[in-house]
Amino acid sequence: MIRKFDSIPKEIEKKCIDEVITRVQEIESSEVGIIAAQDIIDIVKQNLGPEIYNTGIRDTKKLLQERITDLETDIDMLEQ
Predict the structure, then answer these.
(1) Residues of the chain above pLDDT 70, percent
(2) What's the confidence (pLDDT) of residue 56?
């Protein structure tokens, strides 16, 4: 089963892997491979992905509710 937060475009995933490798080298002064970097990214996606996704859903729902309230107000103002 593919979760919505697992479908990251390949170019973004590669950029993240490259950044993880670079950051580990800067901090630890040691090498980290692509597989280790991918593991780190997978851990972050599994732990943060659902929360980030759900936050986006909640924000969208809130925005839509605000827009509906605004539309209801506009419609009420049209009443004679």
Answers:
(1) 92
(2) 95
**pTM for the structure as a whole:** 0.59
Looking at the 3D structure of the chain, how many domains does it have?
1
Which domain covers residue 36, as residue numbers? 4-78
* pLDDT higher than threshold 60 for residue 2: no
* Residues 10-36 as b or e (16 or more Cβ within 10 Å = b): eeeeeebbeebbeebeeeeeeebeeee
Whether the Cβ atoms of residue 48 and residue 3 lie closer than 8 Å to each other:
no
- Sequence-ordered list of residues with C-beta below 8 angstroms from that of 8, at least 6 positions apart, any chain: 16, 45
